[in-house]
Protein: DNA polymerase kappa
Amino acid sequence: MDHHDEDDAHLSSQIVEEEDLLFDDGPSEQPSLDETTGNADIDKITAQHSDIDETLRVRLAGPSTSKVNYHALQRLFTFIEFLINYYFPIQAGMDSVDKAKVNEIIYEVSKGSSFFENERKKDNAVTGRINALLSKYERIKNDVLSEEFIIVDNMIEELEDERDLNQCIVHIDMDAFYASVEELDQPHLKTVPMVSFAFQAVGGIGMLCTSNYEARKFGVRSAMPGYIALKLCPQLKIVPLNFSKYREASAKVRSVFEQYDPHYCPMSLDEAYLNITEHLKTTNKSPPEVVVEIRDKIFKETLLTASAGIAANKMLAKMCTDVNKPNGQFYLKSELADIQEFINPLSIRKIPGVGRVTERVLNALNVNTCKDIYPQRAMLYKLLSDISFKFLLRAHLGIGSTSVDSEYVRKSISVERTFRSLSSRTDLYFKLKDIAQKLAKDLESKNLCGKTLGLKIKLTSFEVRTRAKTLPGNIYKQEDLEKYASQLLEKELPVSLRLMGIRLSSLCSRDEIDQKGVKRVGICTIF
DNA sequence: TACATACAC
DNA sequence: CATGGTGTATGTA
Structure:
């Protein structure tokens, strides 16, 4: 896992590749087919009864699994299944027949572990947050909110000024990237459920990085512990990671991107944004034709397939990628009507930046699809922060950034490790030295130093704590990292830990500082 | 600034 | 038996 690819500086340690959204979100966005479609009824909002089984199961099932409303959805299940098979008859991973069973198995296997208990705690915290929001709502629900409607509608007008429909943005995502690369070398793996793994973690197989589409049919996904995957699919074939191979394949893919947008922005080894507006001026081809050409070239170069989304901005392009994966693409025309039609029926979970928790919160406020945001706008304006609210409004309007740029300014750098539970002073300080050394090495290779030092610890109970201190000057040496991190650790003792990490932020280049660690400020004159 | 959370990959 | 690592943003005190 040691990559020194400077090009990948900020990506080099990404282990888990893209989430398996196919398996997940099929059913959860389907309530829009139900009678709940249409304007969310503001009076239907009721206090959340914390259904531990339901929310916890979803939480345990992993980051990419969205809510399954067992009560409401059970009824819809056959219908949804029919629809999915009708619209996506051959897509692997869409086979969600056993989704409830998968979550059940994960739940049963996890039950009682420290991890589980911690998840339960986090889940309860979210329920508490939701109830607080709902009681806030109770107090305002009878207000007319006419002022708020006016404010929000003005806001919408302002946001409309941000809208730029003149760019053609493409989001490209390699299909089951690591698994597909492995299948090139070992074609027999294509027909068996297979995963790549990493993280020896504390024992056993470790955490899974990616799975092929055969494995996804069993509910096996990235970021799942190996032993649970084996429970779901005992015949699972587990393959070790070969990062150099993935980087090699990625370089070939990127050389194709380069031809269409020299400023393309890679998000990981297997994913990137391109702005093909300029390229389109050099050809008679339409945007989707160009993207077919790009995917074609990728295939010829690597024998790997990619999926793509084409739209007016990055958010929409990313959402479009999801529509026809794997090995497909979707073009959303840059017309207001088309954009609205595309966005409205989508589950809010499809909005990049809306995860499990936000989905739960919004669902509690009767916002299930992007369309629901609009009728609820005055209420949401009252209940959410300005930033969160504007974020939702932009999503609803289909407004997003069109800036595709590979420039990157790092804001922090860190090293963290998980290990078998440690509690003796000696062991803990030895670990800390080890981590400080790794961080010092990274700082060295990137020529960085910084003055805010953070310590992260995860107790054996999975409780996470972070402690930070801003120092008078910049540091980068192992001894300094170790010294200040030790001071922070000291105050936490005694503890039994399963993880330790050190982070350095408020960074600057070592070239910019003098011997005292004081940042040398460029003399700015007005002459 | 310090800390906890949420999210992406 | 057993649940990762790196980085960003945001809310809150």
